[in-house]
Design brief:
The structure is a single chain. This protein has 184 residues and is mostly beta strands. It is built from 2 helices and 14 strands; from the N terminus they run ββββαββββββββββα. The strands form 3 sheets. It has a 6-stranded antiparallel sheet with strand order 1-2-10-7-12-5, with no helix packed on it. Strands 6, 8, 9, 11, 13 and 14 form a 6-stranded mixed sheet that branches. The chain is globular and about 50 Å long. The N and C termini lie far apart (36 Å). The mean pLDDT is 96. This is dTDP-4-dehydrorhamnose 3,5-epimerase. It is an enzyme of class 5 (isomerase).
C-alpha cells in the first residue's frame, strides 16, 4: 500500500496495490495491520472501526459537510467502488494549525484510492458520475443527537467542489439548512 500525506496532518490518501491481468484485477481493500503501521509510522492514533456504510448517489448529488460532536466523533476510511466522487474533509479541530482548511481528492472505482479522515473533520462528497457507490468504515456509531453539518458552499471555507460542467447540484433539504463554519 502506498500512503500519501496531505497538506493537513492526519489526512492520508491510501493507494492499495492492485494486481491485474486479462481476467480483471484483485486488491486487498483493507488490512488492519498495514493500516495500523501506516498510522503509527506517522505518529497518528490507531482507531477501531465499528460500522461500515454504503451509499449510492447519482451525478451531482452532494452530501455533507457532516460530522458528529464528541464523544461520538467519527473517523472515516472512505472509498468509491463504482463511479467517481470528489471527496472533501474540513479541519474542525480548534487547536489545529490548519483549523478551517480543507483538502479534496478524487475517489473512483478505477483509481481505487482510499481517504483516511480521522476524528475532528467535517466530511462531504459530490458524485461526479451516475450510480456512484461510496463505502466508508466508521470509528464510532451514528448518534443522531451529536450529528452536525456545515453548509457545503460556505464562503469562509471556499471549497472547490470540482462541479464545473455539472448541470445540477442536488443537496438534501437537511444539508441546505446546515450551519455556517463560523457558528459550529
Amino acid at each position: 500500500m502506498n500512503v500519501i500525506e496531505t497538506k493537513i496532518k492526519g489526512l492520508l490518501i491510501l493507494e492499495p496495490k492492485v494486481f491485474g491481468d486479462d481476467r480483471g484485477w484483485f486488491m486487498e481493500s483493507f488490512n488492519q495491520k498495514a493500516f495500523e503501521q501506516a498510522l503509527q509510522e506517522r505518529g497518528l492514533d490507531v482507531p477501531q472501526f465499528v460500522q461500515d456504510n454504503h451509499s449510492l448517489s447519482q451525478k451531482g448529488v452532494l452530501r455533507g459537510l457532516h460530522f458528529q460532536k464528541a464523544p461520538f466523533a467519527q473517523g472515516k476510511l472512505v472509498r468509491v467502488v463504482q463511479g467517481r466522487a470528489w471527496d472533501v474533509a474540513v479541519d474542525i479541530r480548534e487547536d489545529s494549525e490548519t483549523y478551517g482548511q480543507w483538502f479534496g481528492v478524487e475517489l473512483s472505482g478505477e483509481n481505487h484510492k482510499q481517504f483516511w479522515i480521522p476524528e475532528g473533520f467535517a466530511h462531504g462528497f459530490v458524485a461526479l458520475e451516475d450510480n456512484t457507490q461510496f463505502l466508508y468504515k466508521a470509528t464510532n456509531y451514528y448518534n443522531k443527537a451529536s450529528e452536525r453539518a456545515i453548509i457545503w458552499n460556505d464562503e469562509d471555507l471556499a471549497i472547490d467542489w470540482q462541479v464545473d460542467g455539472l448541470v445540477e447540484i442536488l443537496v438534501s433539504e437537511k444539508d441546505l439548512e446546515a450551519n455556517r463554519f463560523s457558528s459550529i
